[in-house]
Fold these 2 entries.
Entry 1:
Amino acid sequence: GPALPLPDGLPEPELNPNAEVVLERRYLRKDGHGTPYESPRELFWRVASVVAAQEQQYEQGRNPDELARQFYELMTSWTFLPNSPTLMNAGTELGQLAACFVLPVEDSMEGIFDAVKNAAMIHKSGGGTGFAFSRLRPSNACVGSTGGVASGPVSFMKIFNTATEQVKQGGTRRGANMAILRVDHPDVLQFISAKERENELNNFNLSVGLTERFMRAVEQDEEYALIAPHNGKTVQTLKAREVFNLLVRKAWESGDPGIVFLDRINRDNPTPELGEIESTNPCGEQPLLPFEACNLGSLNLGRFVLPGETANGGADLVDWERLRETVHLCVRFLDNVIDASRYPLQRITEMVAKTRKIGLGVMGWADMLYQLRLPYDSRRAVELAEKVMEFIRAEARSASKQLATERGPFPAYDNSLFGKQNLGPYRNATTTTVAPTGTLSIIAGCSSGVEPLFALSFTRNVMDNDTLTEANPYFEQALRDTGAYSEQLMREVARTGTIRDMDHLPEELRRVFVTAMDMEPLWHLNMQAAFQKYTDNAVSKTVNLPNEATQDHIRDIYWKAYELGCKGVTVYRSGCKSVQVLCTGEKQ
Ligand code: CDP
């Protein structure tokens, strides 16, 4: 439905300069000449009132006016933001509010081109798409109807890539795709090297789907079979270690492909009777069934720190009570978004209605640690990560349970893992996901996702040709508090990004205000694993490596990710040739 009229006295949101630029360029509604006809206040009221209006369809629904004000306050205090399509499209004719979709690609001309078309529809509506190409017959396999030979997954991916190039996502950003191919597909070697040339498949992130069987073969230095999906025949066998080493080398060279652990993802598939999970959304944090969609939202953890000095590793300064209330409000918000959203395909509408997945996650984690004076690369920080995410998941599930008593469980509940284990009933088949928050974190003015800061101060390219210099506010405040602040120092930090080597600064500052490049790479992974332990879906995280990192480092990271229970891992070696498709504010 349409937004409610703007009530009197609604406070104007306080925007940081970057947020102002981003909102105007991408989020405010515009007329045919590209001139915005809504203010940021109208934007957030539009979203709040449309999402709150969904209460009307439930017998035990809340008062939509009061709830809309609560949602407005929740967003404009930069405590929580829903994913970009919700901000852009709530209350519009398009009305598509989810960021994440997965589409099947069947092994037929019709199936392949249906998927191309469906992806275009989703991109147009502002969503990103993931595909598994694992069902396609390999290149050079016979095509019965014509007596010719098949082109194979990588060739067809180029068609998806070109189609994506031509459709601006929701009219504002280029579409994003994930392609996954199983490691036992006969074209896997071609897939692993598919992005080795600059700009090749530039609208795709690639991940190889690793199986438990493959990982065991790597461990025991055995061969494994490549199987043609259309007839189940073994085409060839390969040495698992050689394939693993090739994966490592390509990731070292270009950052692509990443890896995902498919069996592990399916072990956590809450509704196996509805099908197997073959792919994730573009940034990897949301595994989904074919034709499923999911909307995400992120809490800004930087807003939950109480003043004072910590005596027990930070937990005493987390505002748990406020976090609890906020999580409950956010789950209600995201569940309403499902009802408020219109999906571009009937099949998707039906799938979403069955599982009602939502993905509540966090951003501002590095900001929280800075305020608590805990170094990101420390045991205490990793322990706090577990505590915080464990709490959020427990409260999100309890909120979902509460909604189930008011509105009924998700329709696939009975045959789901929860139903069989008598755990529910829940309103949502999943409740937690940690998204990259590439743009959301700019709007909220916080650090992105669970990433450490890239630099304490830097110049940011915002979209085409605007640049903005910014220093992390907690860093700046700490400098002022210790009397170390000077304009000259700030200029120096903007150049190098880090204070690691600035001997003249207090030791505690240098230890606390670490950046991605200052720390041992394994800390990235320890942090990812800590959040993953208490996240239903997956955690978006890039393990950033210095340029000097070796292939051995990457091999260790991949293996460790497997051992620590991560669902996948992406590495990026500074200065390696490829530019990632998306996911950091700087690059969008
Ligand atoms: O911050 P924002 O809500 O814009 O997005 P994000 O947290 O960086 O990304 C979350 C998800 O949105 C991605 O995994 C994609 O599914 C989708 N996305 C997309 O389709 N296109 C983009 N340019 C960015 C994100």
Note: The chain has three domains: 17-97+282-420, 100-280, 448-587.
Entry 2:
Amino acid sequence: KTARKAAVTTASTRGTGTRLTSADRVVYPDSGITKGEIAAYYEGVASWLLPELVKRPLSLLRCPEGTDGTCFFQKHHAQSLGKGVHAIELREVEGSDQYLYVRDIRGVLDLVQMNTIEFHPWGVRIDDTEHPDRIVFDLDPGDDVAWSEVKAAAKDVRDRLASIGLGSWVRLSGGKGVHVVVPIRRGPGWDEVKDFCGAFADVMAEHAPHRYIAKANKQARTGRIFIDWLRNARGATSVTNWSLRARVGAPVVMPLSWAELGRTRGAADYDLRKALRRARTLASDPWEGFHKAGQRLPRT
Ligand code: ATP
Ligand code: MN
Ligand code: MN
């Protein structure tokens, strides 16, 4: 048994202390990407990935059988996740439970070792989990919506936010849509934040009902874009910048400047290799100013 285990075990990832087993196992059967390559990817993009990810409660998408097998979301801590993965006790509807977070690349690699592909943080930091520091408008195009329409919608959301004094930043989801992200100064609680987001989405839909919908009704979505504001409820998450997606082609969640968004051709424009190249060559932060924005959420 020991011999067999040794045969599928490769060296630990450089200097982080995580022991990566089965590094040669193919995780993305469509593109032949291995677990070792996934670990190398997350190490390679760490300086871009970590600022948005660390010290926040985290949901994971784990795919122990590969991206074409059964994947599952996990939000609760377990000792088996590794020493770099930490617990935080959070209130639930009834009682409380241990949630999980990481502080550094060691934690990320521990989670990769446990077959995590996607990282989905909350919009709060662990030192105050009742007061969000960012909101996310998740734009979900229905069937028959052209990419140019999705881009126009993102700019529409940006412009309406700007008109009430809020700067916003955009990312490709790696799936079908985009997220428009708004950093806010901590203060308002979850209910106030959620109410603001719902009211904002309603206004978008009222002004252009043929283009937008603010209700999570799949049928009514055909030909329109759902402004999904429900990501901003307590316990909800959105996938983080530079996270891989467990989808065909190994697409990546990519933060872009607004100018770059205009040149994209789809939400899955960046795959693992292209993202890694971008991480190495990026001259400036596409989300310049995001962390310093310090903007106050207007009252609804
Ligand atoms: P797409 O562009 O394809 O919509 P997405 O990541 O925005 O990609 P959504 O289905 O719109 O996917 O979901 C938005 C966010 O909600 C996700 O990024 C994820 O964090 C969270 N989410 C969605 N479904 C689940 C789920 N079943 N369990 C936990 N979190 C989920
Ligand atoms: Mn979405
Ligand atoms: Mn959604």
Note: The first strand starts at residue 26 and ends at 28.
